[in-house]
Design brief:
homodimer, alpha/beta, eight-stranded parallel β-sheet, globular
Chain lengths: ~325, ~325
């Protein structure tokens, strides 16, 4: 059993192969070729935090994964990153641990960023005028970083409650290829951007249907736990396509959960990302449609990124 | 973050402190001072196996644990042990991993054995004539080993489907203090033993009420997953005390789950082990009573054993 620390993991992260593996994972998930039980959730009150345990396997695969990822929101004040965690890969035939990826939550950030870029690949309008980023945390960075894989647009508007962090994102040394401006409010983002990614931890919706212009695609990745909601339910009723990574999870939490609960949309209106990858008819059909991808994060993505890194490590590939 | 391998873990295992910690854990659990969500379960068909993920914390404590334990039943044919796994301890204030105990499932065996001895401490008859062990796997050994802490009886009858493994247990070099005989059938165990521990993986009940004589205590530790059942439900109806480690888990699986489902017992008849530790009136009251402890294994035991080992390691004890 091998144990890999973050520096080594970063060296062996081959984004194109991970992205391809994740697309295969989303397709396997929608075809019910995976076993991914409900997410294990731990909540902490003082200090406020949560820990998500995602686990599962692809039936035809060789491994199962257990991924542990935490968010403790007071950590930055202590000089620590908010997120932490690890991924553990096991032999599916024997239960033997194969490797521990001590990624400190990094791979969860990467696969969440890549899931956003996969959603944009299939749902964003053909011409992106400006990318809108709502929120200024780690995912604001990762979503932007991996959107370069699927759009040529480099104009960005960012908005968040913390103006300092918005300015830090604008000046981020690894986002130099973008022209990033800080928006005064979310309405400005909605009026100027037709590819919007929401990445906040909010418990009260920020984005409303009257904000959004026709032709916009929204990827919502912040509401990954009970109680969190970024997009007002009425916006779902105005969407031409509603896509989630996992329908089962969308029944339990996330923006889609609230939209369903409100009665403004029906379960049948929701498609899984794997279906959209497989079937062109389920993608955006024109540049007037409003599309939403609500991603709560799925175990099969953790599995696929862990497997790709392990295979790259053991095959000696980058 | 420290990583400890099995040999080092075994060196730092201080059984009395672990046992005391586990009793505190059972008490905290019954007083609802713990957060221990439902067990995460993965099942595998080919080859047959399962993986249990237990996780949680004591509200007043410093750590949370994630414990991963697997059982793959074809492993012995491949020269591998059935069980495997690890425990990971995290700082409850920040989510930072504190240590990984690569125990290969050993600590799950130890805490399961100790839970059995704790149950016997409070529920076994005052004079144990003979210990009956049903099953011949790892728990047959661990249950016996730790019963030495709570009873002076060294007479043992063992029965299992696999006669060779029953003989191996009889000759086990680390059980030399016992006089172990192999019983021809489970009825012999029931007729001669008044402290019986069932440790099998069976899906059809083995122990029936007409087998059992008055004054017997039964600890059932095998049925730790959906579908498994060792004790026929009617035996519960004949018991004077029904004790479980976790009522919440007993609603979901295990022998008590089936007894409740059958309608032969009521939920109110069930007590948690922590209550029995706290309240003498809930223990065995005389040597004619039949008592059952149905243990499905709780995250708080994993937490407590991991914390005790980590503290021993870092304090340089024992």
């Amino acid at each position: 059993m091998k144990i890999y620390r973050l520096a080594e993991i970063k060296q062996h992260l081959d984004i194109p192969s991970v992205m391809a593996g994740m697309e295969e994972g989303f397709v396997a998930l929608c075809k019910k070729e995976t076993v991914t039980p409900p997410v294990g959730l731990l909540h902490f009150d003082d200090p406020k935090g949560d820990c998500h345990i995602k686990y599962g396997y692809i039936k035809s695969g060789n491994y199962y994964v257990v991924k542990i990822a935490s968010g403790f929101y007071d950590n930055p004040r202590k000089g620590l990153p908010t997120g932490n965690g690890m991924m553990i890969l096991f032999d599916k035939a024997t239960g033997t641990p194969v490797c521990i990826l001590l990624d400190e939550g990094y791979l969860t950030d990467v696969r969440t960023g890549l899931a956003g870029s996969i959603a944009a690949r299939y749902l964003a309008p053909s011409k992106v005028d400006c990318i809108g980023i709502v929120g200024t945390g780690a995912q604001a960075f990762f979503q932007l970083k991996y959107l370069t894989l699927v759009t040529s647009c480099r104009k960005v508007l960012v908005w968040g409650r913390n103006h300092e962090k918005a300015l830090a994102l604008k000046r981020h040394e690894n986002l130099g290829e973008f022209q990033i401006e800080v928006a005064p409010n979310i309405e400005t983002i909605a009026s100027k951007c037709n590819l919007i990614v929401t990445t906040t931890n909010t418990e009260t919706p920020l984005l409303f249907h009257h904000h959004i212009r026709p032709g916009t695609h929204i990827t919502a990745i912040g509401a990954d736990d009970v109680g969190k909601q970024e997009i007002h339910s009425a916006l779902f009723a105005h969407a031409d396509r509603i896509v989630v990574d996992s329908k089962n999870q969308a029944m339990l939490f996330g923006d889609t959960f609230y939209a369903l609960k409100s009665g403004l949309i029906e379960k049948d209106a929701i498609r899984e990302l794997g279906e959209v990858i497989e079937d062109k008819k389920l993608r955006r059909q024109n540049d007037e449609q409003i599309t939403i991808a609500d991603l709560t994060g799925v175990a099969v993505s953790d599995l696929q990124i862990a497997v790709k890194i392990y295979e790259n490590m053991t095959l000696g590939k980058p």
